[in-house]
Amino acid sequence: MKRWLKISFSLALIAILMIPLAACNNDSAKEPKKLEKVRIAEVTRSIFYAPQYVALAKGFFKEEGLDVTLTTTPGGDKTMTALLSGGADVALVGSETSIYVYAQGSNDPVINFAQVTQTDGTFLVAREKIDNFSWDQLKGTTFLGQRKGGMPQMVGEFVLKKHGIDPHKDLTLIQNIDFANIANAFASGTGQFVQLFEPTASIFEKEGKGYIVASFGKESGHVPYTTFMAKESYMKQNKETIEKFTKAVYKAQQWVESHSAEEIAKAVEPYFPDTDFEIMTTVVDRYKSQGSFATDPILDEEEWNNLQNIMNEAGELPKEIDYKTLVNTEVAKKVIKK
């Protein structure tokens, strides 16, 4: 009898000890999965990249199990250095940079896998208000352009040539001023026209320092102006991660497409604490109305060819690169289909 009591007591004790253990197992089962880290290097902080900030602000990356960190690495060269050296997993930068890297003989090419913007993001700003602007009014003037070899400058020259203007003969072209100082140079009296990004163009207009007279984005047509890209080796080793990342980007693109400029500005506001909300809304509306934000992540062949044509016109295309060599649309198409 005593032996039976001892056995019963022992069994009861084991059962009691197992209860908290089971509870622990249940608790651990309820714990969220550890998020996978992905590091983005963006070429600049710009409202032009609104879908990226929406994906972050609305938690679309987290919904896909990704812990995304964002670092601004000013300039395409620095952004690509961060990507190639392993300082970043994904870069948000102009597609022309992937061509430059490939042309230098990289054995691990950078692949474009998700497009974010599909037009140029700059505007032509005049010092004086012009009611009926025509491009030939630039002839004989001083034009403050963008840095030589950069996508804005190449698009600028492409558009001028499209309108019968030789940028190196028909006007005085200034393109030796650092990107960060172009707006200040114009504000202090240099040039009669300037090529500016937002929100500077709208701020100048609001302050009466200049007037937007044309959009280079409308004039140049669709190009893969800014895309998410990664090294080929990273994409092969992290196929699931790239798919989740692209899915989050697509969610953000659809959200931007279906919401108002004011709602988009409100969503991305935390990333632009020093920008006036009214200006931000104006900028978003301007980009959205001219179709600058890609509505899906697919970079198509026509856009790729247009990019290389623009680079070639500017004398900056090192060599023609086949579309399938540096563009992967399989992931984007899979995400959209799902």
UniProtKB/TrEMBL annotation:
Q: Which Gene3D superfamilies match?
A: Periplasmic binding protein-like II (3.40.190.10)
The record ties this protein, via Pfam families, to: NMT1_2 (PF13379)
Q: Which compartments does it reside in?
A: Periplasm
**Signal peptide, first to last residue:** 1-22
Q: Which GO terms describe its cellular component?
A: periplasmic space
Which top-level group of life is the source organism from? Bacteria
Provide the alphabetized UniProt keywords.
Signal
PANTHER family tied to this protein = ALIPHATIC SULFONATES-BINDING PROTEIN-RELATED, TAURINE-BINDING PERIPLASMIC PROTEIN
Q: Which family does it belong to?
A: Belongs to the bacterial solute-binding protein SsuA/TauA family.
Protein's UniProt name = SsuA/THI5-like domain-containing protein
